[in-house]
Amino acid sequence: MPDRHEDPPFLKACRREPTEVTPIWLMRQAGRYMADYRELRSNVSFLELCKTPELATEVTVSAAERLGVDAAILFADILLILEPLGFDLEFSKGDGPVIHNPVVEPKDVDRLREMPDATPLGFVTEAVAQIRAALPASIPLIGFAGAPFTLACYAIEGGGSRHYDRAKAFMYRDPGAWDVVMSRLVDATAVYLNAQAEAGAQALQVFDSWVGTLSPSDYKRFVQPHMRRLFAALPADVPTIHFGTGTATLLEAQRDAGGSVIGLDWRVELDEAWDRLGPGVAVQGNLDPVVLLSSREEIERQARRILDQAAGRPGHVFNLGHGILPQTPVDHVRALVEYVHQAR
Ligand code: 1CP
């Protein structure tokens, strides 16, 4: 059994243990807002970068060190898992991800392949091992995957979407085929996340970025049973972060599905949301990423408010409510990290 007293603050907060400072990391902390990243990306495509463990390691580790954050997140993408399941994935310039053979009709579900082990995503588990070896012991590594609903949105829409109308119409029209898609995604994602933990990931975040588009009753009917099965299949000794956006009305149902830490976006007050969630979970969030485009004064004011709302209750991981925007000044991100670290 490892000596948990020596655990870094991020892991302690995930377990709701007291920490001297509030740990902070930021979603999309490695990415286009950094000059080094843009430079690297001028020579390699995004998919190539994800599939080259040495490069994924460099991007992950240099971002974490540059920012002085309390955790690193694996550089990869939630959509990578779609390739071994039989989808033709491309990241086109400017337009974001495209899936050239989306699920359109119920019969297309038969094309979905199974992923009995994580070999097809071996470049990710290799990156996890290399990143873990390169990071100091004081910086835990977060592994991640997309949640089945959010992945199903991409698999059915064929890319990003505003209203997820195709995915939701498919779900309402053919709940049987929907359950098959969701079940396949859960099976593959459980294999993938277990492999990341085995390779050295010390916490696992499940990104259900688009689930806030559902009503609470539809969430409970079409998503929650699958999320429950996914969380139950993850290693019991690794903290799990259950993330979504637009989830103000879904928080209790998400908590009931699983996760040691629940993600909060900026549309909820942290203290009210945490009261609703109760004593059994930690929380992560909840600064609006757009605040990082303002001034240091405003960043500090908003960070202070969030810290005050979390005060006196162990188990807060400071983060944004969603990813860093590409036009964010790096200095503002560093200022936020420093402010959270010195705040009492
Ligand atoms: O260089 C580039 O232009 C690629 C931009 C980029 C990057 C840096 C994409 C394409 N993905 C990523 C990395 C990424 N994606 C990480 C890396 C680690 C980090 O956070 O530092 C993570 C965790 C993700 C997860 C991800 N990908 C999510 C969930 C988080 C979220 O933002 O909600 C989603 C929805 C995606 C899909 C995706 N991949 C890339 C883009 C531009 C998108 C979003 C497309 C859309 O709006 O639908």
Automatic annotation (TrEMBL):
Its main location: cytoplasm. It catalyses: uroporphyrinogen III + 4 H(+) = coproporphyrinogen III + 4 CO2. Pathway: Porphyrin-containing compound metabolism; protoporphyrin-IX biosynthesis; coproporphyrinogen-III from 5-aminolevulinate: step 4/4. PROSITE patterns: UROD_1, UROD_2. GO terms for molecular function: uroporphyrinogen decarboxylase activity. GO terms for cellular component: cytosol. Keywords: Cytoplasm, Decarboxylase, Lyase, Porphyrin biosynthesis. It is an enzyme of class 4 (lyase). Its EC number is 4.1.1.37. Substrate binds at R28, Q29, A30, G31, R32, D77, Y154, S209, H322. The keyword Signal does not apply. Residues 23-32, 142-158 form the Uroporphyrinogen decarboxylase (URO-D) domain. PANTHER family: METHYLTETRAHYDROFOLATE:HOMOCYSTEINE METHYLTRANSFERASE RELATED, UROPORPHYRINOGEN DECARBOXYLASE. Catalyzes the decarboxylation of four acetate groups of uroporphyrinogen-III to yield coproporphyrinogen-III. Belongs to the uroporphyrinogen decarboxylase family. This is Uroporphyrinogen decarboxylase. It comes from Tautonia sociabilis.
